[in-house]
């Protein structure tokens, strides 16, 4: 074959490649962004993704699988069966993966994250509705049976050291639900999406303006009904998960002290320190969700220590300084992600 013929073939192939690339880009730009909203896990989900058809029914089906595995409010869920100590409960991969991740993070945070904390939370009650502080005897009695180290999984079964132990994955389930939907969308080869469930978020690719996704972090205000919606900052992010935990919406005063809704699993009492909001960024949202809760329990300095050890995590922390004013600390690697 002559050099001239080779060049003609190469030119034709290059032309074909360019035209094909242009057509693909045009198709991507013209492909609509679908927007789905609804209720799941007792909260609202908002999901935006670029695709030719609406997948809300399929997405809801994925979320219901998570609900059937992890919702303590679903009487037929796996976790409800475990809490009732039913025999021969079949554990699926969702339940196993979440509980194993929870146990791992519990160890790494020295018990600040603990999925056996539910009885303590129930004892205190949000809003201090009874007007009475739980007695030390009542708290100690629950501490005696709770603790992440008092459960284990063997041969695909949950082993409790005490049958009264109750599991509650609420502080990780929303994040895990985001991950499940993200996995579903990626299997459809969807590259541009934003998934938000109750404030926990997973982003990929770009938004409809071909820009990174803009996700707000709510300003800590004494707004128990969450009606203000004022933003502390906006993050410009993509290909990352983020989750926020904050004690500033659910709190009460007692004897001049402000009590947070976050219960310290080790003491049995609400945490009382200066951190108001913890937003954690991670490779998956279940991890971000659990660490955000952990940081609310640990406080600023211990959270910073964990972040120093786990360089795969980043955090944006809002706290009150010694003068009672709002202050901010964030991982240096977040600097270029702060949009405003």
What does this structure look like?
With 340 residues, this protein is an alpha+beta fold. Helix content is 36%, strand content 24%. Strands 1-2-5-6-9-12-13-14 form an 8-stranded antiparallel β-sheet. Strand 3 (151-154) and strand 4 (157-160) form a beta hairpin. Helix 2 (56-70) packs antiparallel against helix 7, helix 4 (93-108) packs parallel to helix 8 (285-298) and helix 8 runs antiparallel to helix 9 (300-309). It starts with a helix and ends in a 10-residue tail after the last strand. The relative contact order is 0.11. The model has no long low-confidence stretch (mean pLDDT 87).
Task: Break the fold down into its secondary structure elements and pairings.
Elements: H1 3-30, E1 33-40, E2 43-50, H2 56-70, H3 78-83, H4 93-108, H5 118-124, H6 136-143, E3 151-154, E4 157-160, H7 170-187, E5 193-197, E6 200-204, E7 213-218, E8 231-237, E9 240-246, E10 251-254, E11 257-260, E12 275-282, H8 285-298, H9 300-309, E13 314-320, E14 326-330
Antiparallel strand pairs: 1-2, 2-5, 3-4, 5-6, 6-9, 7-8, 9-12, 10-11, 12-13, 13-14
Descriptive key words:
single chain, 340 residues, two-stranded antiparallel ribbon
Number of helices: 9
Q: What is the element string, with H for helices and E for strands?
A: HEEHHHHHEEHEEEEEEEEHHEE
Biggest sheet record? 8 strands, antiparallel
Which structural class matches the secondary elements? Answer: alpha+beta
Helix content: 25-40%
Shape: globular
Report Rg.
Answer: 23 Å
Mean pLDDT: 87
Low-confidence stretches: none
What is the CA-CA span between the terminal residues? 60 Å
Strand order of the largest sheet: 1-2-5-6-9-12-13-14
**Estimated share of beta-strand residues:** 15-25%
Number of strands: 14
